[in-house]
Amino acid sequence: MKSLPTAKQGLNGSLIVPGDKSISHRALMFGAMANGTTTILNRLDSADVTSTMNVLRSLGADIDIKSDTVTEVVGHGIRGLKKPNIPLDMGNSGTSTRLLTGLMAGADIEAEVHGDNSLSKRPMDRIIDPLTEIGANIDSQNGHLPLQIHQSKIASKFAQTLKVGSAQVKSSILLAGLAAGSDVSLTDSFHTRNHTEAMLPKFGVKVDIEGDTIHIPADQTLQPTEIEVPGDISSAAFWIVAGLITPNSKLKIKNVGVNETRTGIITVLKEMGANISIDMKDDFGEPIADITVTTSQLHGIEVGGSIIPSLIDELPIIVLAATQATGTTVIKDAAELHVKETDRIETVQEELTKLGADVTPTSDGFIINGGTPLQSDNIHVFGHGDHRIAMMLSIAALITDGSVILDDDDSVKISYPTFFENLEGLV
Ligand SMILES: O=C(O)C1=C[C@@H](OP(=O)(O)O)[C@@H](O)[C@H](O)C1
Ligand SMILES: C=C(OP(=O)(O)O)C(=O)O
Predict the structure, then answer these.
(1) ipTM over 0.90
(2) Where is the active site (predicted)?
């Protein structure tokens, strides 16, 4: 339980958000598949990433946390990965589960895969079906965890088209093929986040991209390398919106990863009238920028279609921004929100309504009538155990006129353990 601060004086200053979660997971996994020592700089230290590290250790990788900013992964090559002698616990992390299941099926590693209550409700048939099509042998509980990965024989050459707009599914299939030494072609017409195919060449893997199709030739090995992880735009998103909707604010968020498959939130907020400036920095593989925002009068817009995958995790905080915009914002094509850590269409609507926002859920998004001041008089809000909901509500509380109590604040450890420290530092 946490009493949330308001920001009566505005938010001013600069901050650095922790490393990107998606990139941290992948750097660890690819390091474990390589032969030798990979150095990861600025890895996110959060519960989801710890789930990935623990599983990789059970598969035989040595992971040494040298300091707050340096992690070394000693891999023994794909063939050096071994059958774990304990059931694998993926905690709350969809990314760990889906990517590592593909990797293990491809490497022909038998394993049992578990997760927490939230993860056990999330759909796994989206990976089981395409992986089974290429030769994996995976049992589930009606498409849910726990999974049993049995001995698998992945086709030596296959071509697939992504059926769900999910980078986790895309990466699961690519990793299955890569680990099996197959020749892989995978078409992603959704343009989901591209960190897997962007990072593999740094490990010496040949990746050809032609239009929407990713091709990895057969029999690739991974060479150890150094990966520098940029700040997570999904974490920066909370401060971007906080700076825009809190009167008298100017905030600079430094060293944020601005890969174009992740920056839908910037496009949408600018279209809503946000004053955001992007100062590009040196590029270490993934583009990095300092992002400066000043208080802005936003207006409602329609958000939907192909931009959705590039802002999927930011939709809860975009809804909050829309409650402070003039006019109506309509968000559609976002049915994926039903199958995140919570049903984020339900939880966002339920909790923001408690604060006086006018948010109507639809089957694939929201209709938000903006311009509603957020009220509070000892109102209790609940993150439903979902980190992004807890952080969104904490930003909402900044602009309330009273006191808001967050009943569950612990979930921020999933992606942003230092969130409340950063918050206290700004108010
Ligand atoms: O690949 C990734 O690292 C992620 C992809 C997204 O999930 P989907 O690909 O399932 O939409 C996102 O919601 C998640 O936080 C991280
Ligand atoms: C959906 C998320 O993560 P995951 O799917 O990895 O649990 C998230 O971080 O918002």
Answers:
(1) yes
(2) 313
